[in-house]
Design brief:
Elements lengths: L1 H11 L50 E2 L12 H10 L3 H7 L10 H17 L2 H11 L10 H19 L7 E2 L9 E6 L11 E3 L3 E8 L5 E4 L2 E3 L1 E3 L7 E5 L6 E9 L2 E12 L11
Parallel strand pairs: 1-2, 4-11
Antiparallel strand pairs: 3-5, 5-9, 6-7, 6-10, 8-9, 10-11
Helix pairs in contact: 1-5, 1-6, 3-4, 4-5, 4-6, 5-6
Length: 284
């Protein structure tokens, strides 16, 4: 069983978490690592659909742990488990991973395998390797739209592949780079219970809104080219609050966000209405 699963896992390494540079060619199964290959020769190939990140072997024999999600507070419970994995809270994962809270058909099996790898790598639990191999053999790599699950799956696959070659060694994890999911601004939430919308609006007085989607940090928001201060939401980590400034007349302005390392992908159009009683009436 172990040999079969190891071979399957190695073939899956070509679908791991880092994206190719422009013009790169995705490797075929024939170029994937094979059992017995030196740890320093193993690499996690490009997936072709997301930025460089996640579990790849380094020349020092280490493997990358999962990077920050970042997890959106609106994500289902299964996505929230990524935070515990990122911090190697194996006991915490074991306590919360359950079929009842899984939000995908394979969620419980996938995150049980993740918990097993966490125990094996961080706690030296030998049974974790056996459990992870058994469970991974029943799974397929999640698609890019499930970026947190995909990164977690790739973590399990990469560590098992290296452990299969050398069962007496545990690859030392290093910090994952970049993010598991693309950063983006997709909407604003007026905090009136209707949720975020891609077409926010308010009266000419502006108002207080919450940025929607995924961020590591936000240092400023640009409203019609005007920089506006932003503050972390004290209740929901990962969410940010901005006060849209007043406008002299009705009309539309573009809203973008900037992080400490540069612009955040995504923008939206904010509409100032003459009727100040209407605010985000089309919440999504």
């Amino acid at each position: 069983m172990l040999a079969l699963a190891g071979a399957d896992v190695v073939l899956l390494l070509m679908c791991a978490c880092s994206a190719p540079p422009p013009g790169a060619v995705t490797p075929s199964a024939s170029s994937a690592a094979v059992p017995g290959q030196a740890v320093s020769e193993i690499s996690v190939g490009p997936s072709g659909d997301e930025p460089a990140r996640g579990s790849g072997a380094n020349n020092d024999g280490s493997l990358a742990w999962v990077p920050p999600g970042p997890v959106d507070p609106a994500d289902p419970p299964q996505a929230q488990w990524h935070v515990l994995l990122q911090t190697k809270d194996c006991a915490g994962l074991g306590a919360v991973v359950s079929p009842r809270k899984a939000s995908s058909a394979d969620g419980f099996t996938l995150w049980s395998a993740v918990t097993a790898i966490c125990r094996a790598v961080d706690e030296g639990d030998a049974s974790g390797w056996r459990d992870a191999v058994s469970m991974l053999s029943t799974l397929v790599q999640p698609g890019p739209e499930r970026c947190l699950d995909r990164t977690a799956y790739n973590l399990v696959a990469a560590f098992i592949a290296v452990h299969t070659q050398n069962p007496t060694a545990t690859p030392p994890p290093r910090s994952g780079s970049h993010t598991a999911c693309p950063l983006s601004l997709t909407g604003l939430d007026a905090l009136h219970g209707l949720g975020p919308t891609r077409t926010p609006s308010s009266g000419l007085a502006g108002g207080r809104f919450q940025l929607a989607r995924r961020f590591l940090d936000v240092v400023t928001v640009m409203v019609g080219g005007q920089p506006v201060g932003v503050e972390a939401d004290p209740v929901l980590p990962g969410r940010w609050i901005v006060v849209i400034p007043p406008a002299a007349e009705a009309g539309q302005v573009q809203v973008t966000a900037v992080a400490s390392d540069g612009p955040i992908p995504g923008s939206l159009t904010f509409t100032y209405l003459r009727d100040t009683a209407v605010t985000n009436a089309d919440g999504e």
